[in-house]
Amino acid sequence: MPEDRPIEDSPPIGEAQTDAPAGGCPAGFGRIKPPVAGGSNRDWWPNQLNLKILQKNPDVINPLDEDFDYRSAVQNL
């Protein structure tokens, strides 16, 4: 939909902004390294959930006792 502004507000053709980025592949090919070229998980999944915050939980909030035996609890399942 065209903008509703008067033609006088538009710059003359010689003064128009022409430094638009060159066209490229809309699918993003070439922007990401292939898996064999290295890179990190952040390159492939930039919007992943940061789970490092979960490591900051102190032992005080652990609902299980310090002497809780995980191995025997799993074997009893």
In N-to-C order, the SSE pattern is: HH
Largest sheet: none
Oligomer: single chain
Mean pLDDT: 72
Number of helices: 2
Percent in helix: 10-25%
- Give me the count of strands: 0
Query: What is the C-alpha radius of gyration, as a whole number of Å?
Result: 28 Å
Question: What does this protein structure show overall?
Answer:
The structure is a single chain. The chain is low in regular secondary structure and 77 residues long. It is built from 2 helices and no strands. The protein has helices at residues 41-44, 70-75. The radius of gyration is 28 Å and the shape is elongated. The protein starts with 40 loop residues before the first helix and ends with a helix.
Keywords:
little secondary structure; 2 helices; 77 residues; 13% helix
Produce a short descriptive summary.
It comes from Mycolicibacterium smegmatis (Mycobacterium smegmatis). Keywords: Heme, Iron, Metal-binding, Oxidoreductase, Peroxidase. Helices cover 13% and strands 0% of the residues.
Question: What topology does this entry show?
Answer:
Blueprint: H1 41-44, H2 70-75
